[in-house]
Specification:
By secondary structure, the protein is mostly helical. The chain is 57% helix and 0% strand.
């Protein structure tokens, strides 16, 4: 079976991070939050799909949700 090199790299990195965190989810999560805060300047946000003005159901009624 063909193995995607990107998927293999992601899995290898995940395993390394798990080992670094002692396979403790709380430690791994805390480290991920720490890294994310350090890269906040590189993150973008998009406006919400639904707003208070048009109502959450407006998109549903138009069949776009």
């Amino acid at each position: 079976m063909w193995e995607d090199p990107i998927v293999a790299e992601v899995r290898q990195t995940r395993m390394e991070l798990e080992e670094e965190g002692g396979n403790d989810f709380d430690t791994i999560y805390a480290r991920a939050v720490e890294v994310q805060k350090g890269l906040a300047h590189r993150l973008i946000s998009t406006p919400p799909r639904f707003s208070e003005e048009n109502g959450a159901n407006a998109e549903l009624e138009r069949g776009r949700a």
